[in-house]
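forwarding from the other thread:

> can someone predict this with pyridoxal-5'-phosphate?

sure thing
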Amino acid sequence: MRPSSRWKDMPEPSHFQQELRAIMAEKRRAGIRVLDLTEGDPVIFGHTNQPLSDALIEAAREGLHMYPEQTPWREELRKAISSFEKRYRNMDYVPENIIIGPGVAGCFQILHYSLLEPGDEMIVVEPAHYLTGPTSYWYYFKAKVVTSSCSEDKDWDPILEELPSKITEKTKGIVIVNPNNPTGAVYNEKILKGIVDIASEYNILIISDEIYGLITFDGVTSEPTSKLAKDVPVITLGGISKIFMRPGWRVGYICIHDPENKISELSRTIKRVSGLYGHGMTTIPTPILYAATKAFTGSIEAGLEMAKKLQNRRDYAMKRIEEIEGVTCVKPKGSLYAFPKVEEISKIWKNDEEFMIELLKEESVLFNPGSGYGPSGCGHFRLLLLPEINILEEALTRLERFLKRKRISW
Ligand SMILES: Cc1ncc(COP(=O)(O)O)c(C=O)c1O
């Protein structure tokens, strides 16, 4: 029996990923603890949100184990997200224009199913989370990803002059991640307006991933792209994984902003595709629907507490990085990450993946290499701000020691 040809071009794990897995397994067998700073998961770094745990226990106690369709909780969650978007981001998305799915990753997949034909092009403003392996479904839909870059010299802002040259008649949209994973950039209104104007001129839509929208530092606010789009359709993505610290619950959502009804057919399709649920792959379990409703109607205090800690950890990391020869970093304004550049990478190693393999082998510390986030990420690595300062200190000290040693032997 032949499998579906749709999966024919699905990439195998890269040589880099395979090698990483092998080294990690070897370290585990040898009882060596690796400082693994790769996963943007607040839970594994000890950030907690007790009221939400209580809500989940309550769901179980209430016996909410029936099929979701038998309950009002899917609709209640959409209403809760609508009120959350109003309260915290001053957005007016009616519940009918909010579609929920299993995480932003699942929502992104729903969008791809709804939007893309083979040969279609999507522009991704990089560096961006969407270019890393597991989140890129483009190959599956045989769509082409076209990247447009940001400028590290300008706080990792998108290079607006570059964007129009990337648009062809096959372009369906521009994907932005703001606040950004991995750079920590928060795009200001001028930049966002620039992107909106380009989308308007070329009649394409914007997909704006704002999952980190409320995780910002130093009083910076991150504006929703939709707010600036008077005629351009914007599809905004949000979720429970970061600000509510519940990535394992797999709750994400799509908000449709379409002031001039330019994408009403697409909106209908997205709703129908997400409604293919039944008991299928876009479903969210009933107890989670219940507890997530409590999250979105409740307070974000715990998330803001986490953001405060991240700001302190960022300040520590920036100071420590300054002390390390050959490493520089643009100060992040939001999200869970910083994106330092290591001058030596291009001199000593073939690429940042080889650098990371050697760092892991010799110092048992692991970061995500920057090139996975797009061409501008080459020579960088993603530093998580989630771990406690002593862990960041240990990781950066190992990096410093490693670079010193390599510099001498090179
Ligand atoms: C920009 C961005 N969007 C989405 C996600 C994943 O969200 P979810 O857990 O809801 O699938 C991440 C996770 O790191 C992310 O960085």
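The chain is about 40% helix and 15% strand. thats all i got for now
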